[in-house]
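ok so heres the complex, three chains, lmk if somethin looks off
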Amino acid sequence: MDVSLFIQFLINGIALGSLYALISIGYTIIYGVVGLINIAHGEFFMVAAFLTMWGVLQYNLPWYISFPIAAIITVLLGLLVEKVAYRPLRKMKTSAFIGAISVSFLLQNLFVVVFTPRSKPFPHPALLDQVINMGDVALPVVNIAIVLVSGLLFLLLSYIVTKTDIGRAMRAVSKDLEASQLMGVDPNRIISFAFILSTSFAAVGAFMYCSKFPYVDAFTGVIPGLKAFIGAVMGGIGSIPGAMVGGFILGLGEIMLVAFFPELTSFRDIFAYLILILFLLFRPGGIFNVKAREEKV
Amino acid sequence: MKFKVDRKTILTLAAAALLLGLSFLAENYLDDFQIRLLNMWGIYIIMVVGFNLIYGFTGQFSLAHAGLAAIGAYTVALLTLSPEAKQLSFFIAPPIWPISVLQLPFFPSLIIGGLLAAVVGYLIGAPALRLHGDYLLIVTFGFSEVIRLLLVNLPMVCNGAMGLKGIPQHSTLPLIIGLAMASVFLVKRLVDSSYGRAFKCIREDEIAAEAMGVYLFRHKMLAFVVSSFLVGIGGGLFANILGTVDPNTFKPYLTYAIVTMAVLGGVQSLTGGIIAAGVYTIMSELLRSVEAPRTIFGIDFPGIPGLRTLAFASMLLLLILFARQGIMGSNEFSWEKIGLFFRKLFKRTEGAENREHS
Amino acid sequence: MNILEINHLTMQFGGLVAVDDFNLHLEKGKIFGLIGPNGSGKTTVFNVITGFYKPTKGQLLLNEKEITGLRPDQITSMGLTRIFQNTRIFRNLTVFDNVMIGYHLRLKSSPAEAILHTSRYKKEDKASRDLADELLEGLGLSKYTSEIAGSLPYGLQRKLEVARALSTHPKVLLLDEPATGMSVEETTEMIQFILDVRKDFDLTILIIEHHMQVIMGICEQISVLSYGKTIAEGTPVEIQNNEEVIDAYLGKG
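and the predicted structre for the whole thing:
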């Protein structure tokens, strides 16, 4: 394969990797703070995209009005789900997971029933559809935008988590819930904050993702959600840098696999799962080797 | 003492015979739709008690059901279709040997399907059951999806995403009901035995169980392999009843459906599982009819797709929030309880009569 | 004969040495005490003996058979059982089930036989049930047989835990702070209970305790740990008068 083709794949891979990383972060923040695998995270992603699309298609709003409204609704939805479905089940891990599954299916099919089962085009600024040609290399603007926006968000997250009080409190709760309570941290406040962060990132990720893959339906969140989840586990679930790295590697790896072995394209998903399984069996802490909550003998 | 045991056994055998007799009658007098409902109920019973065994009694939350059912289903499909039918069906790539030439009668195929599922269960369980909680459920979910994706991507083995059609139906309602009863019997006997006690101890406190001499690996694997066998049998019957298989039937939704049934019935109750499987089957059909468009009194009602899953998801959420114990909690049906119930009933009526006379 | 021998046991977690060159020669029939401040490594020693940790270095012998690196269930089947510091009875199971589990490890019938209720299985099951009844009777727990274990008062739960351990037919019993949370009267009862159990079941006992009443009352030999190292060994009287021990620990009684 020639260099320009390789570069194109690489750029695509970096873009997809950044997108997965954005979503992976959502999983890992919540797991770190609540110990819950929020399997419905992909659905928050979908809600943001879907509502943005609906606002434009149904109410003729411009995308820059529709998206912020959709994002806010998504965040509120996340807080609602946390309060109603997750908080009562906080102590019971398996029941909490079952709760998350039901929320996931509920959201998917609620949108199918209330809105539409059909797939609709996603409204995004026309600029993103442009392609810049640098010699032989075709550079879609949307990819540039994705990398820029993700980069900014990662920096923002870094800042929040290391420099702000609430960010530090979040990390404390992640490490040791009881100790942080003794230090005066209100777990509900922190958990709500975690959900706000998580859903906001999902919303932005959704916008960027659907600008690149411009069709939305109630099930749009399933596959990116799953892939991002695998990325989070790969990086070490509970670790924010882990999620960024894991999600990114998974996205990049997926594209590069197709680049070098196009005949294996349909096996893409199998590879993702196999990586997941191998990590869980041999290095459950992921790349960043996050310690699982061990039982004391 | 001995007399009581005999009485219970006689009652149980009589009930079993009665059910089988009824299913023979049903096959001749009920319509296709109703028979299919009963068949599905029987199949779900087999799958749910499998889940009760591994999760309700042994405490291991596995999400591998869909994949294991797929193994049973595809085994039956591939073994019962004739070589000619296979050559015709295999659209993308011709079937490989020995699948292309093999054909077996139904019942052996079914058993082989169950055994293959058990073997796969062993291969999955050996590494996976070392993990706990979240990690266990993710890994088993992963395995289930890998199985499904392999089915999609290996067209020379199983026709990939096109699935297989025209699977000859050999099973009968009495057979399915019989197998359902046998599954319940199998799990009940196992759970009530010393091994079952070991399972429960593992569920309660793995570390203490190990300290009391319970070899964790052996017992977890026993529960998992038996559970996989049952799910495989259920899958095989599924293929037989539906007449077609394709990978989409074995998406995670199937696993969650079984989890829903188990939670609805009470994960520690086989009786609950039986009841919940019936509730699910009926609700599923009722809701399916709402999903399709229909004309009532000349008015066109458009179908509402997605309503079925929405209903079940809502139900599961409500259950897990407000009624985690399910219908039966951890109670089981027993002849003694029935006897007690009737005795109380008679006492009350006797008491009423006595008060009238005095 | 030394029923339990521990030679040069060292347990290291990453950089932390939790137990450093621990040695034990436990004579059959004796009651041996292991004391030391919190964090001195006592529970770690127990965890290694019972197979929950694999020792970094060292050798353990039970009845002159090597048990180093074996699984906990294997060690239990060879005759060494432990009682946990925080009661770990099976709270949601009945008292009877709690005691019956100890007989499972000696079951020879396969799962298939259990499902089919073969005559061998039925015989074994009956034998276990009779033994369990006897055990509960002997320990005064008979009238609670069908009760849910978690509903018993704390003292009885502790007794149940001992009963459960005894059902595994141990030759060596490890007691991890058996008198935790007990009043003076309860502790006196517990001491007598331990002595009775040793006699009736022909046991050798290894105890971790903080209660001086228990240690001085029944231990025949004591080892004192501090920061993983053994700082003293001897009879209760010797230990009581040992300067280093008093420094490290005994002031707290």
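quick notes: The mean pLDDT of chain A is 88. thats all i got rn
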